[in-house]
Amino acid sequence: MAPSCANPDIILIGGGVMSANLGALIKRLDPRLRIQVFERGEAMAMESSNGWSNAGTGHAGLCELSYTPSRGADGTVNVDKALEIFGQFEETLQFWSYAAASGMAEQPADFIRPVPHLSFVHGREQVEFLRSRFAGLSRHPFFETMEFTTDPDVIAGWAPLLMEGQEKMPVAATKVDTGTDVDFGVLARRLLAWLGAQEGCAVASRHRVDGLRRCHGGWEVEVTDLAAGTSRTCRAKFVFVGAGGGSLPLLQKAGIPEARGLGGFPIGGQWLVCRKPEIVRRHQAKVYGQALDAAPTMAVPHLDTRVLNGQKALLFGPFAAWTGKFLQQQGSWLDLPLSVRPDNLLTLLRIGWSNLPLIHYLMKEGAQSMDSRLAMLRQFYPEAHEEDWTLERAGIRVQAIKKTDGEAGIVHYGTELIKSADHSIAALLGASPGASVCVHIAVGVIRACLPHLLDSDEGRERMREMIPARGEELRQPENAGKFRELHRHCLKTLGLI
Ligand SMILES: Cc1cc2nc3c(=O)[nH]c(=O)nc-3n(C[C@H](O)[C@H](O)[C@H](O)COP(=O)(O)OP(=O)(O)OC[C@H]3O[C@@H](n4cnc5c(N)ncnc54)[C@H](O)[C@@H]3O)c2cc1C
Predict the structure, then answer these.
(1) Closest atom of ligand 1 relative to the 250 alpha carbon
(2) Which residue's alpha carbon is at the smallest distance from atom 19 of ligand 1?
(3) Whose CA is nearest to atom 3 of ligand 1?
(4) Lower Cβ count inside 10 Å, N or C end of the chain?
């Protein structure tokens, strides 16, 4: 892989799953473009996108109860958000199946595997909620293969660990067999290796971007070669800041008006991990439950099959934790204090004040004993023993905080795309539903900032080859047949059926 290319048209900062998918899509749309990727780590995708940093759930709304709010007065559950996420993940599957078939990311079994997605609830009220959720979802073609049961024996057949020693009380579960477990790190490294081998492109690790300055016709990017200890300045017409937790400080340095008042709220994470073969072998599912009080939506507990480097393990969590760092591997406790600026100080204070229960929850979660972690795990796996589980570090999510949020102030758990008015720079903040919808986000960046790539018949045709139909389109009832055909094709190409 060449570390640097002369006169890049586009610079992508960060070698995670977001830059990898965006870079690959752009290069396919216009093979003449020169693209430079700078990654500060030793290797690509070693932060949030890497193995144990995330849960690897291919978020498609199949099992995550946080995408469907509680029942309305009429007893129904609004399933719009789940349909939206499913459609966005479908775009991701289309591009990845194109990448697998075209040699950009071969051997998909290394980065995506079929793992059934289950939702599991206890207690009469939750059982009725899940029943209504199932009624709302299963009438749509996206969710037509979903199964629902309140029979403990059926649940024990789907996921035996859930029912062994389980208290006698009403329980219910749904299951979709075509859920996925994804190694976003492997996929990112594969796409970036492909990109770096293309003419006019270069992918450089151990290159840290330290500054961004506007210049005539684009941006000047100040970069330090950490191996050589030298610095240089590169110019490009378009810059994508896909630096994960490192995006906010870079946006602040860029000084665009759209970033004024923005703040970041880091939330760390931990997993309980089990590698004992006789236990791991008996669970083949990602099982999501309900959020606990004050827990942010991404801290909904789940008991997951996780396959990394061909090794299967079980993961439970995430346990959220208070942190001041913005990056897991290369972060510093000064990241949060250094991100405080005159333009975001009031917003941060307001958010802190109006989110005291969340801050209290994060501090309590991070400091809790192994016993209380196991008590949570035992809601899913009543016969879990402490000696079979270890506590391991997960990645950090830096949630966006915006000045425009009004008096109460909210922490944004979604993914926020910030772009300058002239569309010469775009940055991604936040991390949920994250990597699963990276292709949908990348297409959004292209439409907003590089629309000329889709202006010609040729550009549109290339996009259709990679992503034949957008999620929104497939969601329409008249496109049910098209959805089924395309979905099956993607699942087959990716070896998921
Ligand atoms: C606990 C947890 C669980 C999650 N679970 C899921 C899940 O189940 N499913 C899902 O879809 N998503 C999940 N996510 C979200 C997902 O991991 C992220 O959305 C995704 O990995 C973000 O990718 P990225 O490329 O934006 O960031 P990253 O993968 O973090 O990549 C950013 C890169 O930029 C580099 N960088 C930073 N600063 C600089 C700089 N100044 N110069 C050069 N390079 C720089 C970093 O070293 C890093 O490699 C989870 C996240 C966490 C934390």
Answers:
(1) 41
(2) 434
(3) 54
(4) C
